Amino acid sequence: MDRDTDTNVLGMDPQEVQEWVESFNQVVREEGQESAITLLDRLRGHAQSLGIALPFTANTPYLNTISFEKQAIFPGDQEIERRIKSLVRWNALAMVVRANRIDHSIGGHISTYASAATLFEVGFNHFFRGRTEEFEGDTVYFQGHASPGVYSRAFLEGRLSPKQLENFRRELREGGGLSSYPHPWLMPDFWEFPTVSMGLSPLMAIYQARFNRYLEDRGLKPATDAKVWAFLGDGETDEPESLGAITLASRENLDNLIFVVNCNLQRLDGPVRGNGKIVQELEAAFRGAGWNCIKVLWGSDWDPLFERDIDGLLAKRLGEMVDGEMQKITVESGAFVRQQVFGGDPRLLKMVEDLPDEALRTLRQGGHDPRKVYAAYKAAFEHKGSPTVILARTIKGYGLGESGEGRNITHQQKKLNEEELREFRSRFGIPISDEQLAETPFYLPPEDSREIQYIRARRQALGGYSPARKVRSQPIVADHDALFREFRSGSDGREVSTTMAFVGMLRQMLRDPEIGKLVVPIVPDEARTFGMESLFRQVGIYSSRGQLYEPVDVHTLLYYKEAKDGQILEEGITEAGSMASFIAAGSAYATHGINTIPFFIYYSMFGLQRISDFIWAAADMRCRGFMLGGTAGRTTLAGEGLQHQDGNSHILALPIPTMRAYDPAFAYEIAVIIQDGIRRMYKDGESIFYYITVMNEPYAMPAMPAGIENGILKGMYKFRASENGKSKLRAQLFGSGAILREALTAQEILAEKYGVSADVWSVTSYKSLYTDGIDTERWNLLHAGEKPRVPYVTECLADSDGVLVAASDYLKALPNLISRWTPRRLASLGTDGFGRSESRAALRDFFEVDARFIALATLYELFREGKIESAVVQKAVQDLEINLEKPNPLFS
Ligand SMILES: Cc1ncc(C[n+]2csc(CCOP(=O)(O)OP(=O)(O)O)c2C)c(N)n1
Ligand SMILES: [Mg+2]
Question: What pTM did the predictor assign?
Fold first, then answer.
C-alpha cells in the first residue's frame, strides 16, 4: 500500500514525488526491506553532509504498529471469550454498585476495568501463565483500580465466593471480604503486588524483570521465557517513577518485560493530554529510550478504511486530532464522527459514504478488539532484545453508555440507576431478567456451561490461576552462630564504626555455604562511602554483560570488578530503584521460592524520608530483608550538613507495621539483631523486615556482656551500672547509637563531679519498646479484672531508682514515645531542627545531646525532684561551659 504524504504541502510537483515513491517501492520489492533501510540511512547521512538538518521524531504515524497483513491470527474462540468478558464486566459492575447501595461511602471503580477488560481477558485466556512446580510462571502487575475485574474473573473461575464479592471493600464483615485494591498483606493467597499507589508498579516491574535475570545469571534459577507484565494507566505515567527507570530496562535488554498502558486518554478529572496526544508522547519517550513500542489504536473495523486510505489522508487527520477531540468523538453520534473526522476533506468523506452513521459511531478502539490485542501481545512475547511497551487505545467507562462512557465524571462513578443497568445488561447479553435488575445479582454460569468449561481449559493449559501468591521457599536450616561470633567479642580496643562492623558481618555471610549465595547486597552508588569496596573483588558487581573493559584500577587489589555472576547490585544513584531491587529480592521467597536475603545500604536520610511509599509497598508485599541506614545520626555524620544529617528516620519507621527498627551502638548488638532477624524471617518464616541504622564514627567495640541478647532484641538493656551504689543521688541514663557513648561520658562526669550514681542503658529500639507498650496496654484494656501485664520498659526499670534522662541522635519525640510506661518522668534530649556542616563535637553541643547536656539534664531533673539545690545546676552550667544564650536548634 502506498502512502506518500500530502504532496501539496511539499510544494513539489506531485508527479515528481510519485516517481520518487515508485523508485523506492522498486527497491523494497526487488532488494527487500533491509536494503530499503540502508538506502534511507545513506540518504539521511548524505542530507546531513549537505548541511540539511532533518527534523527529529521518535514517532510513527497514529496507526496500529502491526498492520493488518502482519497481524497474528487469533487462536481463541472469539464468541465464547466475548461472553466470558461480558460476564466479568457484569459481575465487576454489580460488585461496585451493590457495595455502594448498602453504603454509598464505600467507593470503588467501575470505569477503569471497563476500559481494561479486553486487555486483561486476552492475557487471562492466552498469555498469563500460572506458577507450577515445573515452571515459574509469569508475573503480572494489575492496574490497581481495575481490581473489581480481577475479582470478578476469579469468581467465574470458582476462586472467590458470592459472599466475598458481596463484601467487596467490606473486609471486616463476617466471612471476610475483598480488599479495595491489590494488597498481598490483606489477601496473601491472591495478590502478589500492590499497585495502587500509582507509579510504583512500573518501576517495581522493571527491577523485578532485571532481578529475574540476576537470579538466572547467578545460577539461582533456570533461565526461562517467563514474562513480567505491568498494566498501567495513561494518567499514571505522569508519576515520575513510572518512566524514571525505562532506560535501565532497555540497557539491560529486558525482553522479559512487557508494559501495557491502558490509554483511555483520561485520568481522574479529565483528559490526560486534552491538547496533546498521550499515545504519541509515550511512544516518543519509550522508543527514545530504546523500547519496542507497539501501538494498538484502531479495531478491526477500521482496517477497510485504512485499506482505502491510499494517499494517507486519514492517517494524517487522525494524527492531527488532539486527545480532547478524540475523547469527544467517543461520546458523540455517528453523524458527528462523520463531520469531525472525515468532514474536512471531500476525499475523506467519500471514504465513508457507504457507511451508515451507526457504523461510524461504533468504530472500535484497538484496545477493545481482542484480535488486535492478541496480535500485539504475541508480538511482544516473541520480541527479542528489548522490553516492549504496548500503547492500547481504549475508552474509559466502556459500556457504561451515556452515563459514563468516555465522560469526565466516569472515574468517580459508582452507581447506576435501573435504566442504566438495563442497558448495560442488554448490551452485554447478561441472562438477568428485568425483575432481577433492582437486586443486581451476580451471575455465575453452571459448571458445565461452555463459558466455565472454556475458562477451566484455558487456565489449565496456562498452568493454573493468576494472580495467585504462594510461599514456596524452604526454611533455612543452620543457626549461623559462627558467622557472628567474632563480632560478639569486641574489637580489642581497635576503633571501628558500626558500618565497618556490619560490612565485616556481610563479608562473613557471603562466605557461608548455606546463606552466602542468597545474600543480595544492594547499594545506590555508595559502596565506597560504606567501606564496601573490598566486596567488589570478593563477590563482584552484577553486570549482565560481564566486564567489557579493563577497569582503570585493575592493578589494585580492590578493583572495580563487574561480572555476569557478580553478586552486588550496584544500582547507581537511585534509592527508588535500589528499593525496587530490595522488594524483588525480599519477596523472592514467594515469587520464586528462593530465600534471597537483601541487604540494602544507603545514606539513611535518603531512605524513609525519600522513598517511604516504596517501603510501605514492601511491607504490604510481606518483604523480608535488611535495610541499613548508613551515615546515620544528625550529629554523627559530621560536616555534611542539613540535607544529609538524619535525625528523622527512626520516627519515620514508626508507621510501618512490619518494619523492626534498631539504632544499635555496638558491633555485638548488630550481630545479635541480624542473626536473630535471619532466624525469624528465613527460618521461622515471619513476614517482617529490618531497619538498622549504622554510623561512621569509629570507636572501640566492647565485648558483649552476658545475658543481654533478649534485651538487645526487645529494645533496651542495662549496659553499665554505676560503680557508686551508695550515693543518694541516682539516675538512669538512656543512650542509643553513637549517643550511647555520650551517656557513658555523662555517667563519669556525674559520678566524679556531682556525686550522682547513674546506670547507663543502651536503648536499641524505641520502636520495639513503643510497640510492646501499646500492645500491652491494649491487652490490659480488653482484660480488666485479670492481672495486668507489664510493658517491657516498665519491667526493666522496676528496681531502678533515680531520675530518667534519654538522649538519642533523633527527634525528642522518639524517647517520649515510651515515657508513659516509665515509672517516673522521662527527660528527653534529641536533635529536632535542621542539621549543620560541623564537627561531631560542635553538632552535639549545638543540638544539646552531648555528655555535658546529658549531665546538665540529669542535674536539672534531680533539682526538680528536690534532691539538689538550683545553685548546683547553675554552677554546672558554668563548669560544663554551657552557653545559655545559644539559639534553640529547633528554630535556628
Ligand atoms: C500516587 C497516587 N496518586 C493519586 C492517586 C488517586 N488516583 C486514583 S486513580 C487516578 C486516576 C488514574 O488515571 P489513569 O492512570 O489514567 O487510570 P485509568 O483509571 O484512566 O485507567 C488517581 C489520580 C493514586 N491512586 N495514587
Ligand atoms: Mg487513563
Answer: 0.96
